[in-house]
Amino acid sequence: MTFLAQIINRIRGLLEVFGWLPPLIARITVGWVFVESGWGKLHHLEKVTAFFTDLGLPMPAFQAHLVATTEFAGGLLLLAGLFTRIASVPLAIIMYVAIATAKKDELHAFTDLIGFSEYLYMVLLVWLIVAGPGLLALDALAARKLKRLD
Question: Could you give the maximum distance between any two Cα atoms of the chain, in Å?
Answer without folding.
Answer: 67
